[in-house]
Design a protein that fits this description.
It is built from 6 helices and no strands.
């Protein structure tokens, strides 16, 4: 432990420092597990669409809600949303709306 005293001291003193990096590894695991399937698409357009869907999924997880529910709600909202209002359908805006609705209830 003498060789690692500085790291041990940081862990003991700093609040919020975890003893492992499991959370970070779990966050990037999905990218590495499916990277061959996502990188080697048959077409460039297929690869691009896959990246967009992966990005949306990760954004939903970052904000703490179900990606499937977000996509279903967003596809439903697309029927009534004008072109200028598409910014309200992003995962960040969706999370803000859910927070507002939850606090009003």
């Amino acid at each position: 432990m003498i060789d690692r005293f500085e790291a041990l001291w940081t862990f003991a003193v700093a609040a919020g420092v975890e003893p492992t990096n499991n959370r970070a590894e779990r966050a990037v695991r999905s990218a590495f597990v499916g990277r061959k399937a996502w990188v080697f698409r048959e077409t460039f357009q297929g690869a691009r669409r896959g990246c967009v869907l992966w990005s949306l999924t990760m954004s939903c997880r970052l904000h703490g809600f179900d990606p499937r529910r977000y996509l279903l709600d967003t596809l439903e909202a697309l029927r009534t949303t004008r072109h200028g209002g598409l910014g309200a359908l992003t995962p960040r805006a969706y999370a803000a709306r859910r927070t507002t609705v939850a606090s009003a209830a």
